[in-house]
Specification:
Layout: E1 4-8, E2 12-21, E3 24-26, E4 35-40, E5 52-54, E6 61-71, E7 79-80, E8 83-89, E9 92-100, E10 105-106, E11 111-123, E12 129-134, E13 140-148, H1 159-170, H2 173-184, H3 191-198, H4 202-215, E14 218-222, E15 225-228, H5 229-249, H6 258-265, H7 271-283
Antiparallel strand pairs: 1-2, 1-5, 2-3, 2-4, 6-11, 6-13, 7-10, 8-9, 8-12, 9-11, 12-13, 14-15
Helix pairs in contact: 2-3, 2-4, 3-4
Length: 287
């Protein structure tokens, strides 16, 4: 009671005036309880069926989801690439297109990685379950679990994308965090961002990051912000090529200006991030 909340996916702001659990007033509600929420500060049209009451800024909405999709053994229907389905998540129902990422047809009893592209934004979390029903006639054909709640648009049959989804589904916490840092490349994610993307508790993330740092798999480029060892090696290979060419073309100069190297290496990146990466290379004695 008294908490400020957002109503997703509309992201309207409101406040909790009163809470009840089975008709009895309560000051606080917990996971697993059936709760009636009296909200203030909202228009009468909000919330709609399927909306979620969330802590402000705790969830993002998306028009796409990466999933493990299963076609029920007894569905009697095949799911073709680009099929239209009804997606049921919680009490929300939206139309979605199914993009099968490693095949053209999903037969009854089979499962695969897929991307669902919706006609309306939904607020979900990694690990949420969903149901899909055939577009027409309306009958249940399968469902699955959400692996990424805000993915980029994927091309089909790309090994790197399939491997990324395999890690999201079956990898350990450490595997997921390393993969996310690798995917972030020069964006230098912090622990809070990584915890949200990996759907892990921040205390677990702190422990796993400490182990990855000790192993040398990642580096702390800025305070609390991380870069993968392989990304740093990529930066060094590119820098080495640029510097070798510069010295060959300018034998009388002592070296390239740091600002020039930064611009050629990280065009469009902010100076603080680029300098942090160059400093790491300098600390390793490479620059």
């Amino acid at each position: 009671v008294g908490d400020s909340v957002e109503i997703a996916p509309e992201m309207a702001e409101g406040k909790i005036r009163n809470l009840q659990v089975h008709g009895v007033d309560t000051q606080m509600a917990y996971a697993g309880q059936r709760v009636a929420v009296n909200l203030t500060g909202l228009k009468k049209t909000v919330p709609d069926r399927g909306c979620a009451v969330i802590k402000p800024g705790s969830e993002k909405t998306s028009l796409m989801l990466d999933v493990r999709l299963r076609n029920l053994k007894g569905s009697g229907r095949i799911i073709l690439n680009n099929s239209q389905v009804h997606l049921f998540h919680g009490s929300r129902v939206v139309l979605a297109k199914v993009v099968l990422l490693d095949r053209d047809v999903l037969e009854p009893g089979e499962s695969c990685y897929a991307q669902l592209r919706m006609t309306e934004e939904v607020a979900t979390r990694i690990g949420d379950r969903f149901v899909v029903r055939f577009y027409s006639p309306m009958e249940t054909i399968g469902g699955g679990v959400i692996l990424d709640d805000a993915p980029m648009k994927h091309k089909r049959n790309v090994p790197a994308i399939l491997e990324s989804l395999r890690i999201r589904e079956n990898g350990s916490g450490k595997d997921k965090l390393l993969h996310l840092v690798q995917e972030s490349r020069f964006n230098l994610p912090d622990s809070k961002t990584l915890a949200a993307k990996a759907a892990l508790d921040e205390s677990v993330v702190a422990k796993e990051l400490a182990e990855l740092l000790a192993e040398g798999a990642i580096k702390e480029a800025l305070s609390g912000r991380y870069i993968a060892k392989e990304t740093l090696e990529l930066a060094w290979n590119t820098a080495q090529t640029l510097l070798t060419e510069f010295h060959a073309e300018n034998p009388l100069l002592s070296g390239m200006k740091g600002s020039e190297l930064r611009q050629k290496l990280y065009r469009g990146a902010d100076a603080k991030t680029a300098d942090a990466v160059l400093n790491l290379l300098q600390e390793e004695g490479k620059l």
